[in-house]
Write a structure and sequence with these properties.
single chain; mainly beta; Immunoglobulin-like; 3 domains; 6-stranded antiparallel beta sheet; 5-stranded antiparallel beta sheet; rod-shaped; signal; Ig-like domain (Group 3); Big_3_5; Ig-like_fold
């Protein structure tokens, strides 16, 4: 009972699929759902038999239950039949069930030793020869024994392939999906040279890698060997650089293309030291106005990169002693820096600024803060006040200034020095 119900359900489904064709047969041929299998699944036109057996897992549905036939199609065009037509009365018991009486949903016809209803023709005997490429094996169910209509009657198909050069045929097998690849990138600078190393996974992926900086390709089509592609860039300008690597597979059916995330590198090292010297103008007037305690040099130390600039700092100290009479004019201590130099390299003095301070003398006042460029226009290259004061018998002013250097981060490397001139009047 369970088997009958299962067959009835399949028959009803097939009738719904092709029932629209039974009335007028005006529509085009309808492919119906079903599984068509053959043995063997591959061979050659030189083989004695094309197939040993054919199996179909659904039976015919009225009115397409009077005749069945097997045909070859390529590019939608019939190329010819592959075996004798079958009807309910001409299939011997040794050939299997016909599938035309509607009671058998499965039919298999094995050669023992031959079966003209399976395959009694070679592919070379088709009316129109196959060409290299895909083709279809179609199992038709017909509504007429005298006028089978392959334009309107339903069929089940099996996709096949053929090679006209070798004569090989096979049941079509969809190619495996391409394996996804990944690409990673490292960048390393040595002096002005940059080495780019792309690692492609899986290591079996074959292809090339192109390296780019922005939209500019800096090394094209570098072969991948053992999962690695390397590019050496010999003369790269100083400063920051960012690169990406793109893998292109030799066979896109085997592996996908992939692009790395950006790898950044900084080319060129910036090391800077300063030697700041000073000259002092003599005081004038009936008392003594002196400037002492000025060091021969002020070392700002090695510049370090922070917030986009190369920064260095140091402290300048000086002592102003004013023993002039009370009716003498106030004094002013100013400073001005020349450009820094390291051999032929020049760094503008505008990148040096200071923060003055004064202690020990109530009548002395520290000068204004001067920011290094671009915080100010010219930094200490313009004469700037370090401190001012009025005479008060003998008064000692301890003057100091925190010197701050903020140089551009692309400043050439070197040991720089500049002359800072202090003037007391």
């Amino acid at each position: 009972m369970n088997i009958s119900k299962k067959i009835a359900a399949i028959a009803v489904a097939a009738a719904l699929t092709v029932g629209g064709l039974s009335a007028t047969q005006s529509a085009s041929a309808a492919e119906i759902p079903g599984t068509l299998t053959v043995t063997p699944t591959s061979g050659n036109v030189s083989d004695t038999y094309l197939f040993n057996s054919i199996a179909l897992d659904i039976g015919a549905v009225a009115p397409y239950n009077v005749l069945a036939g097997t045909f070859a199609y390529q590019n939608g065009v019939e190329m010819g039949s592959l075996a004798n037509a079958r009807n309910a009365g001409n299939v011997p018991s040794t050939a299997g069930t016909s599938g035309l009486n509607g009671s058998a949903a499965f039919h298999d016809r094995s050669i023992s030793p031959t079966n003209n209803f399976v395959s009694n023709k070679q592919l070379t005997a088709l009316v129109t020869p196959l060409v290299t490429g895909n083709w279809e094996l179609r199992w038709y169910y017909f509504a007429s024994t005298t006028a089978p209509n392959r334009t309107t009657d339903p069929y089940v198909k099996l996709n096949m392939t053929f090679d006209s050069t070798t004569g090989a045929w096979a049941v079509y097998s969809a190619p495996a999906a391409a394996v996804a690849s990944t690409t990673s990138l490292t960048a390393q600078a040595t002096g002005s040279a940059v080495t780019l190393k792309a690692t492609v996974a899986p290591a079996a992926a074959v292809g090339t890698v192109s390296f780019s900086e922005g939209s500019t390709v800096v090394a094209a089509n570098v072969a991948v060997s053992g999962g690695v592609a390397t590019a050496n860039l010999p003369a790269v300008t100083d400063g920051p650089h960012s690169y990406t690597a793109t893998f292109t597979p030799t066979n896109a059916a085997n592996f996908t293309a992939s692009t790395s995330t950006a790898a950044s590198v900084y080319v060129g090292a910036i090391v800077q030291s300063t030697n700041v010297t000073t000259s002092v103008a003599a005081g004038a007037g009936g008392g003594v106005l002196t400037l002492t305690g000025v060091p021969a040099s002020v070392a700002l130390g090695a510049a370090t990169l922070n917030a986009g600039t190369l920064n260095a700092s140091g402290t300048l100290n000086a002592v102003v002693t004013d023993s002039r009479q009370l009716d003498f004019p106030a004094w002013s201590l100013t400073g001005q820096i020349a450009d820094f130099k390291s051999g032929t390299k020049v760094l503008s003095g505008k990148y040096l600024g200071w923060t003055p301070s004064v202690t020990g003398a109530p009548n002395s006042v520290a000068g204004a803060v001067v920011l290094p460029a671009p915080g100010s226009v010219s930094g200490l290259t313009t004469v700037s006040t370090l401190a001012t004061g009025a005479p008060n018998n003998v008064e000692v002013s301890n003057v100091s200034a925190l010197l701050q250097l903020k140089a551009p981060k692309n400043t050439p490397a070197g040991d720089y020095s500049a002359v800072l001139t202090l003037t007391l009047i």
